[in-house]
Amino acid sequence: MNRGRSGEFETTAVGGETVRAFVPYPLPPDPPLELPPGRQRLLERALLACGRLDGVSALLPDPDLFLYAYVRREAVLSSQIEGTQSSLSDLLLFEMEEAPGVPFDDVVEVSNYVAAMEHGLARLGDDHGGLPLSSRLLREVHGKLLARGRGAEKEPGEFRRSQNWIGGTRPGNAQYVPPPPQRVQDCMAALERFLHDPDVPALIKAALAHVQFETIHPFLDGNGRTGRLLIALVLHQEGVLRQPLLYLSLYLKQHRAEYYRLLDAVRQDGDWEAWLDFVLEGVIATADAAVNTAHRLLALFAEDEKRIRETGRAAGSALRAFSVLRRRPLVTIDGVVRGDGMTFPTASRAIETLMELEIARELTGKQRNRVFAYDAYLAILNEGAQP
After folding, report:
1. How far apart are CA 220 and CA 152, in angstroms?
2. Residue 18 belongs to domain spanning
3. Looking at the 3D structure of the chain, how many domains does it have?
4. Which of 375, 385, 82 is nearest to 228 (CA)?
5. What is the helix (H) or strand (E) element at residue 203, kind and residue range?
6. In order along the chain (387 residues), what is the average pLDDT of each group of 10 residues?
7. Pair (257, 349) in one structural domain
8. CA dihedral 49, 271, 197, 219 (to 10 degrees)
9. DSSP of 228-250, one letter per residue?
10. E strands within the chain?
């Protein structure tokens, strides 16, 4: 639907030149979203896909295992949209203090994303001293996101006090100029009110809120990553999923040109419906892919466990080491010792058994602090997540 521009231009002076900054109208759209039967069915299909994902997470023997891996995969993908080159293996190696040497700046950004996501989800889920989904919570999440590495000097956790822009070398030749800094607070307050509107379905709320956040661009840096985190936080707050396992970054990475085109279409033409259809199709594709990944991992674990049991006397300690590898698909011998409590010699023999079965593979070639990978597990998680 073409409503015309979804905001107004405000003329402002930046760096000695006159600039037209875009200030979005508050949500919900006016006139309201068109939800004909076809779009209602698409919304229902997206909710059903989320239900299937919720169901399969309940089947997992250790849902936290799947969540650990999926959160990190999302961190890698969301950061790649911004141009970082880290892989999932880089992140897992970085998180192992025994395995330094991975590229610092890029992987710190990804590690920060994990911390930001975990902080946001924990604060939403904390019954005592927690926060509702609010500007304050988003500032806290942003503070974690830019705590170290690139962007640490870009006012982490604070709404911007200067004009930013997207594309171009300065505001005067930019592709898009967000609201002037003095309008950011009011724009975010209006967005916060929309986030707590009980009459807006959760998936619609997440879709519209993401565009509005990106349009406001309230921070000097990290807006894209924070805006993608906002989708997960809305779905978590609204109870769409018991486990926060739905992340759209792979879908947005695969359809990046269409993603940016539709953001512009909302601003220029008020076409919220085309954007909503795009997001709902992404939810269906993403949830179905996550369900498929969970089933493949369960099948992989069952097959490898069966092969280990067939080794006879060596099976006991090897199964214990395998349990650690399922939780952390990159591990050292010390990591196995800490994860299970077995002795170092027992853990070493167990890993040797897993290497003979080609379940584990040594990555480092070192005599000390060797790192072992559960390759088949990582291969499933890495699909689409390569830089």
Report:
1. 11
2. 7-292
3. 2
4. 82
5. helix 202-216
6. 95 90 97 96 97 84 77 87 81 70 72 91 77 95 90 89 92 94 97 97 97 97 94 92 86 94 96 98 95 90 96 92 92 91 94 96 80 92 75
7. no
8. 100
9. HHHHHHHHHHTTS-SS-----HH
10. 7-14, 17-24, 330-332, 360-362, 371-374
